[in-house]
């Protein structure tokens, strides 16, 4: 394979002091030499910045830049890489890229630098995916989880599971295929125990799927209740700025308002909804219908009650069974109405900072309950990992059942191989020959 040399702007568009344009591929140094006027290519030391100018084919000086060469294989992609630090700005970076493309580079596709790093063995798939997670992280916990995945915590864990399966399968297939070698099969109990240990590790990773989704996408949180309960005031209080109109007139909020808020490192997708009541006119009825649709799709419902007023229609709100519900007795700075004297819920005054902070703590504890969010170490799988590991879990459960039922080793091996393939997909490794290598190295077959 002789890949092309690709080029792309590596920093986001906009104005800034510095931008970065990157080249990767076998011809990267040569292409850079055609457009860079400064220290000659033969005198450019690797991994050191060199001051010079990018010059267009017509002799125009495009920009003064710093050029750095990273020879293969010691680069991000494993190929020859050249990075050009130019002045920030949409026009200048685009012009530098155009000059590189005119000199022989090809435009890079989305994610192509990371893809080449994976194909060249510089990272597994989990590390490649962590790059985008790190870039798009909106909270410290999301950033920390992405950083730990990028450092290899998840990939190393999956690789350990994969190697366990390779060892199990190698032993079993060696016993099946080479009976003349007098390989002692493990007892059924030992095989069941080893397979169950691998299954437990897979289940442990699967248990992190929800927290991974929360960190990447945020938890859909719907604020609902009767008109004038203080829903918009709560949205503004959690955001820390005035986003929704607050007015004593019932029905002020006619449509849903959605904002992202950082809750102690957890991203919440807050949705403020129209007050639930019998709509008086078509626009308000449409807003109420949208509110009910938002509630139906919520993961966390903040049910706001005006504790200073009489009972309303709040008890008639149909809440989704799968959602966590936090009942908020709002306007606690006012005398509580007798209708709510014995009511259970979190007392809140949106006018008091301490009260809002206490609610933040309560919401964090509610969301994080039963997870490792906020723990010292964060490992969280994404939807693709979950799909692969769920398949592996099913195959391992079948293997354990077959072993306990005394089925033939050949059938057990089929399920173990399927589990190995599924686990390998997580990190991008499905090496069939590795099992044979394990067999021959461990059991000295054919000596």
Short description:
By secondary structure, the protein is an alpha/beta fold. It contains 14 helices and 13 strands. Helix 7 runs antiparallel to helix 12 and helix 12 runs antiparallel to helix 13.
Query: How much of the residues is beta strand, in percent?
Result: 15-25%
Mean pLDDT: 83
Largest sheet: 7 strands, mixed
Helix tally equals: 14
Gap between N and C termini: 36 Å
Helix content: 40-55%
Described by the principal axes of the CA atoms, the overall outline is flat
Structural class: alpha/beta
> Could you tell me the number of beta strands?
13
Q: What does the radius of gyration come to?
A: 30 Å
Can you describe this structure?
The protein is an alpha/beta fold. The chain has helices spanning 28-35, 90-102, 112-119, 125-136, 140-150, 153-177, 188-206, 209-217, 231-239, 282-296, 353-368, 383-404, 409-427, 433-443; strands spanning 6-9, 18-24, 36-38, 50-55, 61-70, 81-87, 106-107, 219-225, 257-263, 266-272, 300-306, 324-330, 346-348. 44% of the residues lie in helices and 17% in strands. α6 (153-177) packs antiparallel against α13 (409-427) and α6 packs across α14 (433-443). It has a 7-stranded mixed sheet with strand order 3-4-5-6-2-1-7. Strands 9-10-8-11-12-13 form a 6-stranded mixed sheet, with helices on both faces. It is built from 14 helices and 13 strands.
